[in-house]
Amino acid sequence: MTAARYHPDVKSITLASGLTLPYVESGARDGEPVIFLHGYTDAWPSWQRVLAHLPTTLRAFAISQRGHGHADKPATGYAPVNMAEDLADFMNALRIDRAIIVGHSMGSVIAQHFAERHADRVTGMVLVGALRGYGGNPAIEELGEFIASLTEAPDEGFIREFQRSTLAQPVPAAFFEAMVAESLQVPLHVWRAGMTEFLAAKPATRFDAPTLTIWGDQDSISPHADQMALMRLLPDVRLIVYRGQGHAPHWESPDRFADDVAAFCNECARLARRARHFDKEAA
To answer: In this structure, what DSSP letter does residue 257 have?
Structure first.
């Protein structure tokens, strides 16, 4: 499948909480479930170039999370644990028992909190431009101070520069413009609440799912120290460094990224099948 041929059917689902989220789905319905969580002020199209390269043996979902894109934008509820529970509700609504969770930046924090709260529902995690948390990160704290000073949502000029600052390599112009357009849909209260709630949240610490971290060595937002912290924390973790790439390696190298994610998902699925086999034999 090529990006030029990939035209996803955007669906929406209303969760038990009443929140409605848009999402796209690709691959075989009986494939291994993989759920993609975007970063701060992005939306499901953040993953569109990756989805175009994934094998159809994976059942992939990309969600626009609360406050983002065309998702509902409630006044409150933007802490990592709130968004982790949205993910649990999404899985419940689609009757997905377990999934591999792929999270970029903000999405990586949500994935960690989800794994802490719902360990039995995580087959594995892929953390991209991973953060242990927002607090103590100079780049994010500086952004937080700027957002707190605003009286209206950031303008297009700021958003364009904000998105450009995450890149070390060029991406297609049409894709970049689409990402700017997605950020323009985020209202001021979501910019503020998302930043404030994530800055105040303590990092998740109790999870042990097999994990792949993918990090660009030119990332100006997610520090190398956070990758090393994850390596020390998790019993089953592997780091892949994308040389010369920035905070969004899935934007810069979607084909390579899709290959790395697919290989990891296949390994997680194999381990999960083996565990189920042993459980049946023990019973």
So the answer is: H
pLDDT, tens digit, 9 for 90 and up, residues 41-82: 999 999 999 999 999 999 999 999 999 999 999 999 999 999
CATH number at residue 21: 3.40.50.1820
Distance (Å, rounded) from C-alpha 15 to C-alpha 84? 13
Q: Assess whether pLDDT exceeds 70 at residue 96.
A: yes
Other Cβ atoms closer than 10 A to 236: 12
Per-residue pLDDT at 271? 80
pLDDT at 3 over 70: no
pTM, two decimal places: 0.94
Helix extents (H) in 9-120: 48-51, 80-93, 106-117
Structural domains in the chain (count): 1
Q: Which two tokens stand for residue 238?
A: 């592997």
Q: Do the beta carbons of residue 272 and residue 123 sit within 8 Å?
A: yes
Spatial distance between the Cα atoms of 265 and 271, rounded to a whole number of angstroms: 10
The pLDDT score that the predictor gives to residue 283 is 55
The span from the CA of 46 to the CA of 142, in Å, is 24
Identify the domain containing residue 193 by its residue range.
3-282
Angle between helices 156-164 and 173-184 (to 10 degrees): 130
Is 206's pLDDT higher than 50?
Answer: yes
Cα atoms in the 13 Å half-sphere on the side-chain side of 281: 6
Token pair listed for 175:
């894709």
Cα-flanking dihedrals φ and ψ of residue 22, to 5°? Answer: -75, 155
C-alpha to C-alpha distance for 61 and 45, rounded to whole angstroms: 11
